[in-house]
Design brief:
Strand content: under 5%
Distance between the termini: 63 Å
Structural class: mainly alpha
CATH class: Mainly Alpha
Number of domains: 1
Shape: rod-shaped
Order of helices and strands: HHHHH
Largest sheet: none
Radius of gyration: 39 Å
Helix content: over 70%
Length: 224
């Protein structure tokens, strides 16, 4: 006895629902795998950002310590120079030979100490007015350190936030596809006309998920 047309249509409908369930399930699994990879990448960017933050703080501390050491030598150099100049001015006013000799020794000692201390700070940071350019030294030290290690955490944290946003959007698409599978499963188990309504709803959700995937891909390409 051959199957009735109604039975044949029901079998074809159930087969179609099974195929759609399988396709949507595979698509959801692929998106879940991609979301997991993106989540791992976001964690990596957070790690890189923390590493860059530590590098930046360490560099600031070391550069500041070095700068203050140099600046301390510069102030000693300036103090001895000024002391020598002041003694030199006093010598012009001294008429007593007994005072002239010790003042001369003090003046020469002050200038000698200034010359000695001059080797303990980089003279290239002296401005034309004789002032020590602290900002220039720190800026050059920072630029030199940035050539050797990552000192900028902001791009990494921004990338991590963008990736977490992508994971959220992918999870939303997965939820939509899961709802489509639920509609198809209900439709597959029914025998009356409501199954067609559920099937159409499932197809609509599936198409919505596909459109969301395409838009997400376009966003990714636009970001690159």
């Amino acid at each position: 006895m051959s199957a009735s047309p109604e039975t044949g249509r029901a079998d074809r409908f159930q087969t179609a629902m099974a195929i759609l369930i399988a396709l949507v399930t595979l698509a959801g699994a692929a998106l879940a795998s991609r979301a997991a990879l993106v989540s791992v990448a976001a964690g990596d960017e957070d790690f890189y950002g923390l590493t860059a933050t530590l590098n930046a703080e360490e560099t600031k501390a070391l550069n500041t310590l070095t700068m203050y050491g140099n600046y301390r030598a510069y102030t000693a150099y300036t103090r001895y120079n000024v002391l020598g100049d002041l003694i030199s001015e006093d010598l012009d006013k001294v008429t007593d030979d007994a005072q002239h000799a010790p003042l001369t020794r003090e003046m020469q000692m002050a200038w000698a100490l200034a010359v000695a201390v001059n080797d303990f700070f980089p003279a290239r940071y002296l401005n034309r007015d004789g002032q020590y350019d602290v900002e220039r030294e720190l800026g050059e030290a920072w630029a030199e350190a940035a050539m050797k290690k990552d000192l900028y955490p902001e791009p990494h944290f921004a990338a991590a936030n963008a990736m977490r946003g992508k994971v959220g959007r992918l999870l939303t698409i997965i939820i939509i596809l899961t709802a489509a599978v639920w509609f198809f499963t209900l439709a597959q188990g029914l025998r009356h006309a409501l199954r067609y309504v559920l099937a159409v709803g499932g197809i609509g959700l599936m198409l919505l998920g596909m459109v969301a995937v395409v838009l997400e891909e376009l966003m990714r390409q636009g970001g690159t």
